[in-house]
Amino acid sequence: MNIYNDYIKEIEERKAQGLHPKPIDGAELLSEIISQIKDLNNANREDSLQFFIYNALPGTTPAAGVKAKFLKEIILGESVVAEITPDFAFELLSHMKGGPSIEVLLDLALGNDATIAQKAADVLKTQVFLYEADTDRLKSAYTSGNAIAKEILESYAKAEFFTKLPEVAEEIKVVTFIAGEGDISTDLLSPGNQAHSRSDRELHGKCMITPEAQEEIKALQAQHPDKSVMLIAEKGTMGVGSSRMSGVNNVALWTGKQASPYVPFVNFAPIVGGTNGISPIFLTTVDVTGGIGIDLKNWVKKTDADGNLVRNESGEPVLEQAYSVATGTVLTINTKTKKLYNGDQELIDISRSFTPQKMEFIKAGGSYAIVFGKKLQTFAAKTLGVEAPVVFAPSKEISHEGQGLTAVEKIFNRNAVGTTPGKVLHAGSDVRVEVNIVGSQDTTGLMTAQELESMAATVISPVVDGAYQSGCHTASVWDKKAQANIPKLMKFMNDFGLITARDPKGVYHSMTDVIHKVLNDITIDEWAIIIGGDSHTRMSKGVAFGADSGTVALALATGEASMPIPESVKVTFKGDMKSYMDFRDVVHATQQQMLKQFGGENVFQGRIIEVHIGTLTADQAFTFTDWTAEMKAKASICISEDETLIESLEIAKGRIQIMIDKGMDNAKQVLKGLIDKANKRIAEIKSGEKPALTPDANAKYYAEVVVDLDVIAEPMIADPDVNNADVSKRYTHDTIRPLSYYGGEKKVDLGFIGSCMVHKGDMKILAQMLKNVEAQKGKVEFNAPLVVAPPTYNIVDELKAEGDWEVLQRYSGFEFDDNAPKGAARTEYENMLYLERPGCNLCMGNQEKASKGDTVMATSTRLFQGRVVEDSAEKKGESLLSSTPVVVLSTILGRTPTIEEYTKAVEGINLTKFAPSHKLLVK
What we know:
The protein is an alpha/beta fold. Helices cover 38% and strands 16% of the residues. The chain has a seven-stranded mixed beta sheet. A hairpin with a 2-residue loop joins strand 5 and strand 6. The relative contact order is 0.08. The mean pLDDT is 93.
């Protein structure tokens, strides 16, 4: 009774927070509940029935195994529960989504009782989450002449699990809710500082937008009970920054439909819109939940009588409203005409939201069911020896005769599965591709584990070359939340087959390395496709896509992903980089120059940035590809020279070997396998058998951007522009300013060097600058705190070997200690150097934060409101993003430096230099 009583106590505690009972995933608790159901005189029997029926998580959770077994007993008459008839037991099994429930249904369907077998078969025909063990049983039974097995396979071959679903409604009525003006980051929908609660869906839902917004949504629902609430980013893009499944889960929780009456707090079918559409990676997450994302285009650029753009005094295009979507506006989505209406007035064509593939996702309640359904139909047809009828929309295959391929088109063509043999595919094609490398991070990992359980997956797909579970987002503070979540996550992922950053068995030293940095090292083929549970999954080798926790789970379970081949924008460079500039300044200037070249239009948004860097090794090139997430690109590809790629692969081999030496490889020796593949790739390049990936000379691009290095005359800073009169212009990454804009007068309260945007070279720059300051002034004094968080332990080890870490230790007032990690987040900072544990630190904002209202100068990527720093009552917090030398000098001075101070401070410093490749030719 102790477990049940503990659960009741937890329920009372949650009730005080306005929460319902937490869904049950443990076998021990549910076993206790079942014992109380069997005891007809038990005082807790009625509550136990409710918990069993409505509050046990499905899939492969331990609770699901216990529930399925008890339902089998009821169906076979071995247990009698008046409130759960055998027919109701079958219904409950039908909502359990695979795993133990499928095993039970197969037991019953292939059993000796004909009536029970038929009922089990009827339920099985509606299920899609079957794995090899399940399909092997069906195949074996069919081969042995089992009529029920044949009947099930015939149903699967016809894809009746899909065709018999209700059709998508022709008209969907919505009522609008403006969630914010300007770009809406997923931090607004699922704040990073609440990451610990993401797997507790009801609790996490409390943090979406604001309590006031939640009440407003409820009021709209009460006023319009027959309509769905559509969340809108007015004058902006919805869901920038990350895919964040928890953000979509929250939107669905507040505005969607319940997926099953027997599964609490799992909703689907959210509807979202944005003046500038939906961020591509966020839109993928919307598809996972069978939702709808609409590019509203309700604000357009104003033109004069001659058709010329009208610009404001800042030179930016003036926008005018084409139609209103103000909160409370009732609109109609017509899925047949694929138009948006206000009453009888047609507002806009929304056919991009209702492609044949998206219509299937909506009908099936999400993309998973379609992915698994296609595999199941193919299996059944092959087993029966019949041609599978065309049920699903065929893959969209676009091919232009005589047109060459961009780099991403080449990668997709190599990795595509299920396409027409021999057909060359170009951008716009919609394909399934094999995934080579997968990454899961620690604040979304618990949801990925839940998704794997819900789709009944138990082991990583053999298609995947390597997969890594990071500990970086919770690295700063080993608090009670981290202690409760991380070991459980690491054990699950380790058992599933991933390389884990923190070993659940304590065999090797726990590592908290930044996920993107590790993925950048373990990607050993520039032809690879990488899927990672973070928006900054942007590798300098291969093509990488940041994804929601569900897409990561799907990639881990199936080794596949489905997506359109995106268009590409080619970025090349000309001129010479000035000696006192850092490559980070080139990165920021690329965005600034692109916007200027295209009159304010972000041609990168939703596309691949094919960047011809060539001469930078993987660490340095990653600074560019990483930033492409803030450019709103779908992904990026780095075109490299042969020699540079070989050098990058040798560095990667060394770092993978260190992981092996620390005992991080698993039984399948995945890490050793990656080194073998790297050696093979190096040999191919050296022999000329397969040179480094390059696009074809006659490839077609959406646009071409040429970055002029000559005009980059001073450090560039991405500014959140917190006081812009136009709120839609605040907290975007498009305001790039030169250092001189601040006149050497802007106060800096805290500096941060860390996150995925820095590499070993940045740490060496820091050490060199401190030595220079000491030589010039006799000592190093900080006028603002400087927080330093190296991305990986490998980098720390390399710095120690090269003598730089000793320099940093000499000037620091705090150094992380893995034997005594911090148990609470820092709330106050002194004017000194802090050497923090490798990981995301301030950039994530879920543990460490700057003081409210601070102006922070950081190397990180996030300048969203409240992420690195929150507002105070007196002042807005600001997160300005710049290069390492600017951050260092700003903390020493306590303000932004002048250009003269800056150039003097970096004299003789080995900054990250860049010279465009003269050997890199398209072929």
